[in-house]
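Weekly puzzle thread! Below is a chain. First person to post its structure in token form gets bragging rights.
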Amino acid sequence: MQAIFTSSRTPHGEYRLKRGWDAVQTKDPQAKIDADFEFHEMIYSWAGNDTLQNTMRTNWHHIRRSMAIVVRGTVSAETSWAEHAKIIEALMQGDVDCAEEAMRSHISRAMVKTISTLKDMQA
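Winning reply:
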């Protein structure tokens, strides 16, 4: 995680955050999914972990189906992008520990909410 950030990545991170917030404002589920994918791709790229990038690309079509259901439901896009902002801001400040904690929190919340939403649909 220490190598994930350099100052040259700052404009790219700010651009991805703006794109995400713009997608939230449009209320377009596909725009939200696309912006989310691009955000996560950026983080994987910054990490320099080809295995992670390839695994996510391979499985993205499965993840996208779940996300399509979730973004139309009760999951708050605003919450996700606030979490994304916290991650990027921590990385831009060089606070790797804060970024890691923000990532763990984001992943945990998203996982719980996604599972709950999908279970509710089956009931």
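Puzzle host: Confirmed. Bonus trivia for everyone else. The helical segments are 10-26, 29-47, 50-71, 77-92, 96-122.
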